[in-house]
Amino acid sequence: MCSVTLRPALPADLDALTALEHRCFDLDRLSRRSFQKWIKRRHEGFIIAETADRTLAGYALVLLQPGTRLARLYSIAVDPSLRGQKLGEKLMDAAERYAHEERRLYLRLEVRKDNHCAIALYEKRGYRLFGLTPDYYEDHQDALRYQKRLHYQPANDARLHLPWVQQSTPFTCGPACLLMALAALKDRTPDTTEELLLWREATTIYMTAGHGGCHPMGLAIAAQRRGLSASVWCNQKGPLFVDSVRDPDKKTVITTLHQYFVDTCKKDGIKVNYQDFTANDLDRAIAAGKIVLVMISTWRLDGRKAPHWIAISGSDEECFYIHDPDPGEDQVPLDCQHVPITREKFEKMRKYGQAKLRTAVVLGP
């Protein structure tokens, strides 16, 4: 059996990594520039396997998703001449150990549907299949999505039935989340035109800068008009978001729309609970088959203090799992689905602004 040493990637490894990538993969290769980026960041999750004669035998690259307890095995490779010597398992051990040391609860990965050897290795190590992404690779092969709980296996796994929808504009997170609910509860195919029409119905028109976001009552009204049951939790009675706008004319517009949403909810029989909601309230709604859209502050996700709608795809005793419709700069859509957020962190995320606005929309069939 080949003896290897594991260590973080160094600048001197760049040429060998690029050559190894070309020996291992015909398609979907990491570029030299990508390797250079992660080496330059001195990323401890970029793990090199080196033989006694200092030959690069393989690597694993683990990425950590900011603001979450989720890690992703972005890529793993073993020199073809050294396969069959359990180097892949050693790299997987190191990848899981790194993610665990970084207090991640899950390590996730994607694998080609036809890569039976890799699939067998992952399943042997306790990875569970939880999704499929069609047409993921350059040759249009599907990707199977696996994950492993690094700390313990929860008694109540996340509910993974909620389809994910990516917002098509910077300001339509709310409509994208509502489209997820419509896809799950009404089997409706997400449509960009409907996303924009939902925004027109539910928007506040103005925010601090740029286009306005969606009002929780506006989303509830739009959902009910499309055949869903809807109710709202909101810990504030007055106009929402008005404190973030300085222009008095804009304040008037926001206040006018808020009153329209209040009156329409009353007229259409949409219940508005003017009180804070708890983790137990969320758990009960999820257990009842409801889909909950929650407004959060993005500060703990991307360092920006912006209101942002997400959909909860499930919960267990330690985490809420969210669908975030907006992939960040260093993220791909797979990173934004069923993201585990610890209950403690979620409690901090679900308040926005100086007024600590907390609001959610509960949707059912």
UniProtKB/TrEMBL annotation:
Instruction: Cite the PROSITE patterns for this sequence.
Output: GNAT
Keyword Transferase among UniProt keywords? yes
| Acyltransferase listed as a keyword | yes
Task: List the protein's name.
Answer: GNAT family N-acetyltransferase
Q: Which PANTHER family match?
A: AMINOALKYLPHOSPHONATE N-ACETYLTRANSFERASE-RELATED, AMINOALKYLPHOSPHONATE N-ACETYLTRANSFERASE-RELATED-RELATED
Q: What are the record keywords, sorted? A: Acyltransferase, Transferase
Q: What's the source species for this entry?
A: Alcanivorax sediminis
Domain N-acetyltransferase intervals: 4-151
Annotated SUPFAM superfamilies = Acyl-CoA N-acyltransferases (Nat)
Show the GO MF annotations. acyltransferase activity, transferring groups other than amino-acyl groups
